[in-house]
Structures are given as structure tokens and as C-alpha cells.
Design a protein that fits this description.
This protein has 208 residues and is mainly α. It is built from eight helices and two strands. It is 64% helix and 4% strand.
């Protein structure tokens, strides 16, 4: 009986692994097929591998960046590496991220975010869901987003921001003094730490 139970458990585990593998491969086939179809239709994208998509291209780009470089640098580096693509192109890096349309054009970004308010990228909602349970303005869409954005609008009005300028300048002065101190010492330092502190100081001053 014990042998039968152990054998059944092994079969169940093997079956689960097999189903997971088949699901993974099928999803990968779907993602790569979508990218290949878009490429055949003439949509811009970096050199595309039928199996690995743009993973090798991204790896090559990342190899030329500092190890602590933010991933947001990648789209612009890709645009510079393959200038014939233009500022709008598709990126196929599944399973790390689903097929993505990258827009590095200010005019296009204005259309997406202002003229035509499109649904938010699903990955943003998934990332923030554990923190806000879907009740955050960054991940909201439609009428719900419009209502809560109107609630925050007074805080971003020109008059209100002008009243905040002296406080912002005060905190920025501290930031500039830190930069001058490092310049005088001619040392190597992390700019991110200073800019993070500046952002938190300004937010704290304006909000509190």
C-alpha cells in the first residue's frame, strides 16, 4: 500500500511538472508568434529571434551598462542602438515581461496619457495590488481614476505650486550645498542617494 501511495505521488508530481512545462512552452509559442506576426506586418522592433525573442538583444544592452543601472535606461539605449526603428517599437522579452509597445516619443506619450487615456499597463496593477488592493490612483482606470484625479487636482494647481516654491527652494539649497561639498573634495559619490533625499525632503516639506 505504501509503495502504491509513493508511486501515485511520483506520477502526480511528474504530471504536474509535465503540465506546467507544456503550459509554459505553449505560452512562449503564443508570445513569440505574436511578435513574429507584428514583425511581418512591418512594425518596428530590434532584431528578433524566433525562440528567444529580444532576450539576447536586451542582455547585450545590459552588458554595456553599469550593474546598478535602472531598467528604464534600456528602451532609450535600444533606440540609440537601432536608430532605424524610430521612437516607437515592440519589445518581446517573455517570460520576463509580456510583449510590450515601447514609446519614446513625447508626442506619442502625450496622446497615450493626455489626449486618449488608455488602460494602465497590467504589470503596474499587479505590482501595486499587494500594497493598495487596487485602490491606488496609479493603477485606476476610467471614471474611478477621473474622480480621484479631480480630488488631487487642487494640490497640483499653478497657484498652489507657486506658494510652495520657497519651501522647495529651501530644500534644493541643501541639495546644492551637498553637491558643492563633494565637488570641493573631488570624491566619488552616489548621486542617487542625494536625489532620493532631495525628493523625500521636498515631499515632506510640501505635504507636512
Amino acid at each position: 500500500m505504501a509503495g502504491f501511495s509513493n508511486g501515485s505521488m511520483v506520477i502526480a508530481l511528474v504530471s504536474m511538472v509535465a503540465v506546467s512545462l507544456v503550459t509554459f512552452l505553449f505560452k512562449g509559442y503564443q508570445e513569440r508568434s505574436r511578435a513574429i506576426r507584428l514583425k511581418r506586418q512591418g512594425f518596428a522592433m530590434p532584431p528578433h529571434h524566433p525562440i528567444f525573442g529580444h532576450i539576447f538583444v536586451l542582455a547585450k544592452v545590459m552588458a554595456g551598462l553599469p550593474t546598478d543601472a535602472h531598467p528604464h535606461y534600456m528602451p532609450d539605449i535600444l533606440r540609440q542602438t537601432y536608430p532605424d526603428m524610430g521612437p516607437i517599437f515592440f519589445l518581446d522579452a517573455w517570460p520576463f515581461i509580456t510583449l510590450t509597445l515601447v514609446a519614446a516619443s513625447p508626442a506619442t506619450l502625450a496622446q497615450i496619457t493626455t489626449e486618449h487615456v488608455l488602460p494602465k499597463f497590467p504589470a503596474i496593477k499587479e505590482f501595486l495590488y499587494p500594497l493598495a488592493n487596487g485602490k491606488d490612483i496609479v493603477g485606476m482606470d476610467g471614471a474611478e481614476w477621473k474622480y480621484w484625479r479631480s480630488v488631487f487636482n487642487p494640490g497640483f494647481s499653478a497657484n498652489h505650486l507657486m506658494n510652495m516654491v520657497p519651501d522647495i527652494v529651501r530644500e534644493t539649497t541643501v541639495f546644492c550645498e551637498a553637491l558643492r561639498s563633494h565637488a570641493a573634495k573631488e570624491d566619488c559619490f552616489r548621486m542617487k542617494s542625494l536625489t532620493d533625499n532631495l525628493a523625500m525632503d521636498v515631499i515632506g516639506r510640501v505635504v507636512l
